[in-house]
Structure formats: C-alpha cells, structure tokens
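Title: Comparing notes on inverse folding

I've been comparing how different people in this forum approach sequence design from structure. To keep things fair, I'm posting one structure and asking everyone to reply with a full sequence. Here's the target:
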C-alpha cells in the first residue's frame, strides 16, 4: 500500500506536491469514487484515475539530456517549436524535464518520469550546484567578478553567494568566457546577473548539475543515468535538506 499522491507522482503525472493539489481539487478517483483526502493509501489492484485518465504504474526512468539551443524545456509547445520530449520518441514512459533551461541556453538537463525525484531535486532548500559557462560581450573587472560571487541585486531579490571565474578573454573582439556556479533556479537567473552588470550574454551552456557533466555528449544526445548516479543525486539533495 502506498500513498495516493506518491502513486500519481511515480506514474509520471506530476510531482508529489502537484498530485496533492489534484487530489484536493477533486481531480482524482479511486475505484470510481472521487477522493479529496491526502492520507489515503492504495494497492496495486486499486483503479486510480486523474481527470478520467487511468494511472498506470510505470517503471521509473532517469536520463541526462544535452539540450541544444532552440529547444523548449517542456513536453509540448503551443507554437509548434521543438521540445525536449521530441528527442525521446522511442521511450514509452511519459517523461518530462526537471526544471528548465531557456530556449537559447544549451546544456545538461535531467529528464524523468519520477515526480517525487524531480520535486526533490528542484526544491529550493536542497541547493544543488549548477555550473554554467557564459560567453559575454565585454570583459568584466575583478570587482565585478566579486560582485557575481557575493550576490547581485535583481528585481526578485539578491542572488545567493556563487562561484565565478574568468576563464578566457579576447581583447580584440571584446568578449570573455565566465564560469559561474550557482545553486538557485530563478528564471533566466544567469543572464539577468550579467545584464545587471551591463553585460550581454552571447552564449550560455549548463555544463554541470551536481555530480553530472556533459562528458562525451553532443547537443541532442541522451543517456540513461546509472543507478549509482540516481542514488548520488538523491543523497546530495537529501543531505542539503
């Protein structure tokens, strides 16, 4: 017997928190009856439906995806643009990305059907580090690099302390490459941090997520995470909790 919201999350419908909202909103039925209680437990023989769609227990799957630029971090797009799940056509499970990368940002993103796992990784308190490499127009000073590390005041508040490093520069073209490691996940955060200092981001790639890297992958490549990697991520997030 497992809690209803956990069964819904594991089936890939939503995170556990979202599943709880669905239950409270009366969107879930068990054996034909609408359920609005969060504490209820169900067995494998119980018939669970979400908005009339049967919940079939799926084997949890976990992937690392090298998102190319020009791809939406979603399972569908009303404008018909390419989305992450377009690269998972042969996978039968209903997978979705953990978090988001901007349309014009490339790099590492985790894709899964395990809502509980996704919610664990995305929870702000878990502070999983993410490393980005940005090519910017202009060459920041040492003081500006320190500002990135101490925190930049944005319209939604000051960013948390980070690690920043100027890895290369081109004085003729007036460009530079900055490596920035953060643990927050605000919308367009890295771009906004540089913009606040007066620098435009020309290219942006996420190269690391926790222990994971893009080693030996090209844009558009997918590889399955090993059980050890999944265990490491769970431990990393749980340790930060």
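Reply #1:
Here's my take.
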């Amino acid at each position: 017997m497992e809690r209803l919201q956990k069964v819904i999350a594991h089936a890939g419908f939503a995170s556990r928190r979202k599943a709880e909202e669905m239950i409270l909103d009366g969107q879930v039925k068990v054996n034909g009856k609408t359920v609005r209680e969060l504490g209820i437990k169900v067995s494998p023989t119980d018939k669970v439906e979400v908005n009339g769609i049967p919940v079939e227990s799926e084997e949890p799957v976990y992937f690392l995806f090298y998102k190319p630029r020009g791809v939406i971090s979603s399972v569908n797009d009303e404008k018909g643009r390419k989305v992450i799940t377009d690269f998972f056509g042969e996978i039968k499970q209903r997978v979705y990305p953990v978090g988001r990368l901007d349309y014009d940002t490339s790099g590492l993103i985790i894709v899964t059907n395990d809502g509980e796992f996704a919610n664990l990784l995305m929870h702000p308190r878990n502070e999983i580090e993410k490393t980005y490499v940005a090519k910017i127009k202009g060459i920041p000073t040492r003081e500006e690099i320190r500002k990135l590390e101490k925190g930049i005041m944005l319209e939604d508040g000051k960013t948390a302390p980070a690690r920043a490093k100027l890895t290369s520069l081109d004085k003729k073209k007036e460009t530079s490459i900055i490596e920035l490691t953060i643990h927050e996940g605000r919308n367009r955060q890295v771009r906004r941090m540089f913009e606040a200092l007066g620098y435009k981001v020309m290219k942006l790639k996420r190269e690391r997520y926790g222990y994971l890297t893009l080693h030996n992958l090209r844009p558009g490549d997918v590889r399955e995470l090993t059980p050890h990697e999944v265990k490491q991520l769970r431990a990393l997030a749980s340790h930060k909790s």
